[in-house]
From TrEMBL:
Domain 4Fe-4S ferredoxin-type, residue spans: 337-406
Record's keyword annotation contains Iron-sulfur: yes
Key words of the record: 4Fe-4S, Electron transport, Iron, Iron-sulfur, Metal-binding, Repeat, Transport
Organism: Streptomonospora halophila
Protein name: LutB/LldF family L-lactate oxidation iron-sulfur protein
Length: 513
């Protein structure tokens, strides 16, 4: 498989804003996880980059979490707040709309990606501008807003450093917190030197791969963009229902620039991002920094409520996005995925993600959380989505580190059951039905065991047909010459014939054998 096919990104061609309008890297059409992961695990540089980055982040997280004696209580509180909010989501959404409107903002409701893209495109067009700056937003990546804007002749400029790297290289994000985690600094230097000029201020000719030099090149490149762009698009980490306040947490200051300098601000926010009150927010402002960046407090926490005359954007629009979330909410087991605060702790601990990387998941939501969220948002009718619940060893590490206690293994098993119950798994259902019939009767089980033992020499080492994949990494267990039940009848009868303590000892020895 070619690198372009494996990652979904384009190589070569025109990467200027005008060139990108003609075509974009996209997750759509990517191969199922087993196929994509097989190719990704063969990339030694990718594995090295991922291993180094994820282990560094999770070690930092473990250190700051270990400082808190009440971490388990905070985790339980976060879970409880999210569960209570989801149970009464309709009421909190209406409360949020009222508060935002009272503060001078406008609220728009989007049922799906198409509707959200149409709303945002219309709002940008109404300003007469053709450029927008963006704060990193997974919701806008989920609906492929940049591509929709490009088709309307509007260029979206990413301002988060990692998102800038991804955009300049026409790549795709591969991590929730660090979208360019699959790139090393030598690659980033070449991307900046080769492609920055087409998007604005060029990189210095003598640019090195020192992190400080790379950050400075990005700072100079973005500063000019911040100062002259009049429309910004953001997401939100949280939306406080009782005050109508949006909250964005970031580490570079680009968010603060986007949220204060432009004249118009449009925020696209998933309906699950609500917290009822400011006191609820306090819990998450402790959980999120520690679980995501391994910091005690987030470097930049920006909050805004509507419009304030003479201060910041003078026009604020909130687009509340459903896009499948109501369907997830209706699933009593799967709805816990909507607790997610996008910290990425589950990615950094996951042995599958560390080896396969984010692109293999075929979605802006990679790793364990993506393996349960994407199939619920998109459905499991197509092969890529149906393969994701199986992209896990079910080791449970993701559940242990989740700051809001999402039982990801439970949801994975739940979704596997859903996939297995679909029309495409009739053979598996038939096999499980036959096994249930055999195991449901002692005589039937005995007859099958005797028959199987009689032909044990003919047993293959690999499963035939579609089941062959099961034995790609494991052997079929050896079939014993005699079943345990048969052996016990024979040995037990002999032991009983001895009687007394000797018979008892024989039974115990037989049990140990």
């Amino acid at each position: 498989m070619s690198p372009e096919h494996r990652t979904g990104r384009r190589t070569g061609g025109d990467r200027s804003p005008a060139g990108r309008a003609a075509g974009h890297a996209t997750f759509m059409g990517m191969p199922p996880f087993p196929e994509a992961a097989k190719s990704a695990t063969g990339d030694s540089q990718l594995r090295h980059n991922l291993r180094k980055a994820t282990r560094t982040i999770r070690d930092k997280r473990a250190g700051v979490v270990g400082e808190l004696d009440d971490w388990s209580d905070l985790r339980a509180a976060g879970k409880a707040i999210k569960d209570r909010t989801l149970r009464h989501l309709d009421g909190y959404l209406e409360q949020l709309e009222e508060a935002v409107t009272a503060a001078g903002g406008r609220v728009h409701w989007a049922a799906d990606a198409g509707e959200a893209n149409e709303i945002v495109t219309g709002l940008v067009r109404a300003t007469g501008e053709s450029d927008v700056v963006k704060v990193k937003s997974m919701a806008t990546q989920e609906i492929e807003l940049n591509e929709a804007l490009a088709q309307a002749g509007i260029t979206a400029y990413e301002t988060d450093l990692a998102e800038l790297i991804v955009q300049l290289s026409d790549d795709l994000p591969s991590h929730i917190l660090v979208p360019a985690i699959h790139r090393n600094r030598a690659e980033i230097r070449e991307i900046f030197r080769d492609r920055m000029a087409a998007w604005g201020v060029p990189a210095p000719e003598a640019l090195s791969d020192d992190p400080r030099a790379l950050a400075e090149a990005a700072r100079v490149h973005l500063r000019e963009r911040f100062l002259r762009t009049k429309v910004a698009i953001s997401g939100a980490n949280f939306a406080v229902a009782d005050t109508g306040t949006m909250v964005v947490l970031e580490s570079e200051g680009n968010g603060r620039m986007c949220l204060t300098l432009p004249e118009t601000l449009i925020s696209v926010v998933g309906i699950e991002k609500i917290v009822p009150t400011w006191s609820d927010l306090e819990v998450f402002l402790q959980l999120l920094p520690r679980s995501s960046t391994g910091e005690r407090m987030n470097p930049y926490t920006s909050t805004w409520s509507g419009v304030t005359p003479g201060d910041g954007p003078q026009e604020f629009h909130l687009v509340l996005l459903d896009n499948g979330r109501s369907d997830v909410l209706a699933d009593e087991v799967g709805r816990q995925a909507l607790r997610c605060i996008r910290c990425s702790a589950c990615l950094n601990i996951c042995p599958v993600y560390e080896r396969a990387g984010g692109h293999a998941y075929g979605s802006v939501y990679p790793g364990p959380i993506g393996a349960i969220l994407t199939p619920q948002l998109r459905g499991t009718a197509s092969e890529p989505e149906a393969s994701l619940p199986y992209a896990s060893s079910l080791c449970g590490a993701c559940y242990e580190v989740c700051p809001v206690a999402i039982d990801i293994p439970e949801v994975l098993v739940h979704l596997r059951e859903e996939v297995a119950s679909s029309a495409g798994h009739r053979a598996e259902k038939a096999a499980m039905g036959a096994a249930g019939w055999v195991l449901g009767g002692e005589r039937r089980l005995g007859a099958v065991q005797r028959a199987t033992s009689a032909v044990r020499s003919l047993a293959p080492r690999r499963m035939p047909g579609p089941a062959a994949a099961w034995t790609d990494t494991r052997d079929i267990p050896d079939i014993p010459a005699e079943s345990f039940r048969s052996w016990w009848r024979r040995e037990g009868a002999a032991e009983d014939a001895d009687g007394g303590a000797g018979g008892e000892r024989g039974g115990q020895e037989g049990g140990r054998r």
